[in-house]
Amino acid sequence: MLMRDPSRRRLLLAAAACLAGLAVTWLTSSPLGLLGPVAAVFLRARGRAVRLICAVLAVAVLAALLAALDAGWREPALAWAAFFALSLSVGPLVSMGAPDRAEGDAVRAAKAVEQVTGVGWATDAAGAFLYVTPDVLAFLGLTLADFNRPLADGEFGWKRAIHADDYEGAAALWRRCLQTGEYYSMDNRMLRQSGGYGWTRTTGQPLRDDSGAITGWYGTVIDVDSGRDGAVASGSEFASGLPPMAEVHPHDRATVEQARARAFFHGIPQVSSYRKLQADGSYRWVEFRVEPQYGASVDIDPAVARQDARWTTASSLGETGEAVRTALAIENLYGGAWAMDAAGQFTYATPTAQTSIAMVLEDLNLLLDGRPFVEGGRQGWQRGVHPDDAEEAGETLRHALRTGEHWNFEYRVLRANGAYVWHRAAARPTRDGQGRITGWYGVTVDIDAYKRTEAALRERERQLQQMIDTVPALIWSTTAEGRPTYINKRFTEVTGAGLEDMIAPDGTPSLGVVHPDDRQAAIRAARHAFATGEPYFQRYRQIRADGSYRWTETRAEPLRDEAGTILRWYGVSSDVHDLVTTQEALRERERFLRELVETLPAMIDCATPDGEPIFRSQRLRDFLGYDLEALDGTGKSRLAGTLDAGVHPDDLAGVKEKYAHSLKTGEPYARRHRLRRYDGEYRWVETRAAPMRDEQGAIVQWNVVCLDIDGEVRVQEKLLAAQESLARASQAASLAELSASIAHEVNQPLSAVMSSSDACRRWLMTDPPNIERAQKTLERIIVSAHSASDVVTRVRALFKQAEDKRDCVTLGRVVAEARDLLAEEAARHGLRIDLAGEDMVLAAPFDRVQIQQVVINLMRNGMDAMADLAGGRLLEVRQSRADGMARVEVSDRGAGIAFPDKIFEPFFSTKEQGMGMGLAICRSIVEAHGGQLWAEANEPRGARFIFTLPDAAA
């Protein structure tokens, strides 16, 4: 056991006192000699046992006094009463004055640990604190009495030093350890000098007497706030996967506990071995693995130390007994410790340490060059140190041995598996009563996980810095009070400002990069955020390196600790210039569209896909006399309320039916109906609605336009009345037009009849009468009469919209007949008709009479045009084919066409006696046959009329 030499001295002292007291009592036959054994009992007893002994002695005093009342027992009874009374007085004094073993061992162990870690604590077996590092008590403003004074509901006094979220777990584990004697290990958050909380790792180890009873606890607290990357949740108990201690050989239990301590403190998985109890009572070596409580962000190889491997102990401790005992105390907490003499020779090293590096004490102490280590020689343990660290490690330790200064060093140690891992070593001297160094004790902690994590964090920090510098945003930070402390590289590149430019003379943000017109508002917002802790948000124009300004959006959030105290502000500024300008353009566009809607001479309404109105223009609201919100709360939907209140009762059913159909099918809506105006008058309106759809074709809104057409409807009613009057007048005009048309068309064959009749009369009146010629003339008269009859029939059919009699295909013959009909008249006026072109036979039949009338009309017009010519009266008629059409041209050498655009209009004529119907009728006939009729100028003078007819069957 720890510190067992003083305990043995006290035990021998008590035994000697008992023997002396018994001897005196036997020699003097007096109970006073028993004061020695009683004093020995009080020397060993503590606490409740002392109180129990005192109670027994008090009862014994009363019993002896009662016995003294009997005269026969008075003298011995008074002697025993005096003995019991003296024991009752002296015993507590002996107990109070005797050195407390538990306090001595626990406090000494705590102070020894304190020398290495900086913080140590000790309690008695019940958990009452006997010692806490004075600096810790001073910082917390507490005393040992405060630590031991229970709070409300039986809570421990040290609760005020633990984070509230971690206290329950820590207290529950401590109570369990006090009851079971388990090793205490816990990560939790502890109050710091800054007022915040930081992560710490607390361990505790029980001290036991020779009988195995716990006499006290000692432990330490170390800061692990920087190494909790990937740590488990707060206040969690160490889960090691240790085997049940009942199955572990008694000599190996310390090894198992130390493996857990190493895993807990070093953060490295531990692989070791122990002798396991078998069913037949024998033991067999087995291997076990202990995982650390918290994870790491890097891959860590486990530390392997098998207890069945070779390790050694020193044959003599010499003057290093105290150093070895302190090393053992530290070993129970950290899992690895050692001791050496004043010359640097190891007298103790944890078996696990020896096996993990495959070096026993003899290997560690070997003088490699024959010279003592303290005199500059190299020692065997340096072979297990990385070559880059071995020389400096030796020099610093040698200096400590010579001067007595504390030794602290980090170096790489060679493991048995050939890998180098980082260790942190610390050593402290022990001294005798004269201050002479008698030995050294130390601890070596595996910090490979920390080193690798630190390297990983540095790499992560580098990557994070690269990301911060390359991210397309300006990133900055300030203190809790608002003093700028950092701007990223892009901030300087974009704005041209450095960190010093961002700090005003009073330490506040200068905001010199903000546009002067926006700066005061930004400063007020920043001061408000720093004062209240509310998030910062501001949009302003920020300068650029080229002197221009761009709109920037800046946001900042405070970083708080667990207590809610602001530690720092972090902000980001993003360029939103394009967004702002786009938003301004959209707002201007929205304003323009709103003004457009409000100024359009129409009433606008917008509705949801189910027809519920969601917007009405001011013009529509003014027409109806109420706002859209007035329809809410009436028990009807907005749509139903609008229709029932506004649409004329005679039109309501039709409007609802039509609109419901459109809403159901998505078809556009259009309808005229009467709508009630604000003054109660119903006015005719035309309402049209069309759906607006998204990319998938789903209706997202109905857009409705309503036009007040009451004036137009009234005018239309008057127009209809006027149209009826006009229709009656048109009927009379049509009758006159029909008469004129018949007269015009019949006039030509009748003229031919008159002309032929005169000729026949002349031939008959000759002497002798020319019967042959008269007979031919009579044949022409008969043909002209038939022609007149056909014209009347065809004109009547034309105005009756009867079907044409299209049964002729010989266009050339029809043209020749027309020439023959006009030949007599042409000869009388000295005019020559020249007919040219092929005798065409068409594939598409036509009405012979109508087409012949067209040819005759065009030829007569040409003849009339040349009536005033003195000579050269030639009328040319040409036939040809082109582009699937038959083409007939009638050319004259008259004065030409003065009004080419009007000559085909009805009742337009250039002749004094003309009715203006001929060309209009000709064009209608040609177009009815699928052709065209037009006029052109003839070269060198005159006019040319051309018409075409289809040359292919339809």
Outline type:
elongated
Poorly predicted ranges? 1-7, 227-240
**Number of helices, where a helix is a run of at least 4 consecutive DSSP H or I residues:** 25
- The radius of gyration computed from the alpha-carbon positions, rounded to a whole number of angstroms, is 63 Å
Structural class: alpha+beta
Determine the mean pLDDT. 80
Q: Helix coverage percent of residues? A: 40-55%
Share of β-strand residues: 15-25%
Count of β-strands: 30
Write out the strand line-up for the largest beta sheet, numbering strands in chain order: 2-1-5-4-3
The largest pleated sheet is described as:
5 strands, antiparallel
* Distance between the amino and carboxyl termini: 128 Å
Write a brief structural summary.
The protein is α+β, with helices and mostly antiparallel strands and 954 residues long. A hairpin with a 5-residue loop joins strand 29 and strand 30 (943-950). The N and C termini lie far apart (128 Å).
